[in-house]
């Protein structure tokens, strides 16, 4: 039987994943640089002619397959992450026009970055398992013994470099994302954490 707590967590997960895709589309339309994994998806999309949303899904599937030798176990949130972020990002791209003035580019990017931090807090806080990229990071950390920050830097730098080579948009927004997303998620994660006894107020 589904409990009210489970349904609440599931709705939080779905909302977080939907908003994550919308946030990505906002930063893409801002046109001043995007997150490393989005640079990769955008670069592949430009080269293949396939939609950004579809490529986002396919990249998620490939990353999830990389869990197998690492003996990571996906959760419901992991699977839904792979399935839902791409379509929501594509929906946002179909609605939002590219920004043409620097002021609007900056404002839309900031809105996307803040929304992405909220979305991350929502879907991770629902506690249905990590996203495929986060699971890859923790799996490599466990198998290699490298520090988390080293593993994350290696993974994201690789995604960024390949995406840039393929034509993905790297700019000041990419640097802003790298510097600010951690602190912002440090605020949103405790706010939406559904685990028993979790801190639910921002520090």
Describe this structure in words.
By secondary structure, the protein is an all-alpha fold. Helix content is 74%, strand content 0%. It has 8 helices and no strands. It has helices spanning 4-30, 36-48, 52-65, 76-95, 102-125, 132-144, 148-166, 172-192. Helix 1 packs antiparallel against helix 5 and helix 2 runs parallel beside helix 7 (148-166).
The total of helices stands at 8
Class from secondary-structure proportions: mainly alpha
Strand content: under 5%
Q: What's the main sheet like?
A: none
- Span between N and C termini? 36 Å
* Unreliable segments of 5+ consecutive residues: 196-203
Order of helices and strands: HHHHHHHH
Q: Percent of residues in helical segments?
A: over 70%
The total count of strands amounts to 0
Give the integer mean of the pLDDT values. 91
Radius of gyration: 16 Å
* Shape by Cα distribution: globular
